[in-house]
Every structure is written in C-alpha cells, then in structure tokens.
C-alpha cells in the first residue's frame, strides 16, 4: 500500500516547482498548524491562515503541474465528474486517463 502511494505520488508530482511548493505547503498545512493549535498562545486565525496558505501552495503546484490535487480527484470521483489525475502526456505506462477529460 505504501509502495503504491509513493509511486502514485511521484508520478503526480514531476514538475520541479510543484515539488517545491509541496515541500513548503505540506509542513505548513500540517506541522506548523498543529504546533500553533497546541501552543494556544497565538490567535486562532494564525493557525487557520497557515493551514489555508499551505493548502493553497499545494493547489497552485497542481495547477502548474496540470493535474487535479488528490482531494479534488476524490470529490470529482464521488460526484461522477471528469478529473485529471495525471498531467497531460504524463500518464503512467500501461494506464489510460482515469476519466474522459474532453481533450
């Protein structure tokens, strides 16, 4: 399961800027937010702002990469909407795009 996750993650994060934005965004989203919440000394909105900002960096990275973020893929699957799991031309070998993209 971990191997499958890592393989998928690497395939979906090939653009250097996307990787950089995730390198910054993921720790902001989870680590820094958790630290601020546990300290309870900062105003609550700092934690919210950093959480949203960290997620924003990750969504920006996926926009640059040309694919949907994992959460967006999940929601679109539930709603039966088309989504782009991999950037155009970067689908894994032996795999077709998950749904029709209209391309």
How would you characterize this protein structure?
There is one protein chain. Helices cover 65% and strands 0% of the residues. The chain has 103 residues and is mainly α. The chain has a domain at 15-79. α2 (16-39) runs antiparallel to α3. The two termini are 31 Å apart.
Radius of gyration: 16 Å
Query: Care to count the β-strands?
Result: 0
Shape: elongated
* Helicity level: 55-70%
Q: Give the biggest beta sheet.
A: none
Structural class: mainly alpha
Tell me, rounded to a whole number, the average pLDDT. Answer: 84
Parts with pLDDT < 50 across at least 5 consecutive residues: 94-103
If helices are DSSP runs of H or I spanning 4 or more residues, what is the number of helices? 4
- Percent of residues in beta strands: under 5%
List SSEs in N-to-C order: HHHH
Considering the chains and any ligands shown, give keywords for the structure.
disordered C terminus, about 100 residues, mainly alpha, single chain
Could you outline the blueprint of secondary structure elements for this entry?
Blueprint: H1 2-12, H2 16-39, H3 44-65, H4 70-79
Compose a concise summary of this entry.
The chain has a domain at 15-79.
């Amino acid at each position: 399961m971990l191997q499958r996750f890592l393989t998928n993650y690497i395939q979906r994060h090939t653009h250097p800027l996307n990787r950089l934005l995730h390198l910054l965004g993921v720790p902001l989203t989870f680590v820094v937010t958790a630290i601020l919440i546990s300290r309870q000394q900062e105003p609550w909105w700092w934690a919210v702002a950093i959480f949203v900002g960290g997620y924003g960096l990750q969504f920006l990275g996926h926009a640059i990469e040309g694919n949907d973020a994992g959460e967006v893929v999940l929601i679109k699957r539930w709603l039966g909407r088309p989504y782009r799991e991999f950037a155009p031309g970067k689908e894994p070998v032996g795999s077709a795009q998950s749904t029709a993209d209209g391309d």
